[in-house]
Amino acid sequence: MLSDVWLFRLILLPLCVGWVLAGRGEVYCGEDNCYDSLQVSEDDDQTFIRKSYRKSAREHHPDRQQTPNAKAEVELNLHKARALQP
Questions:
Q1: What's the mean pLDDT in 18-32?
Q2: pTM above 0.85?
Q3: Rounded to 5 degrees, what are φ and ψ at 72?
Q4: CA 14, CA 43: separation in Å to the nearest integer?
């Protein structure tokens, strides 16, 4: 039978490590860091993040492109939403 120490090591410790790593401020959109893809830092305010998103959205907007970029636009919207989460 497992002792309380082993229970902690096998179950609770990995959960605690996951919570600590999740609280580091890094926000991921799939495999990409949302802040990196928007070319902002996590310390920037929401106004700057929105401006960066709008600039990038204008560049990738389907009406301005000759080739279909629907996937890039969807990913950009996802990155904005996750980066602006409190």
A1: 57
A2: no
A3: -65, -40
A4: 28
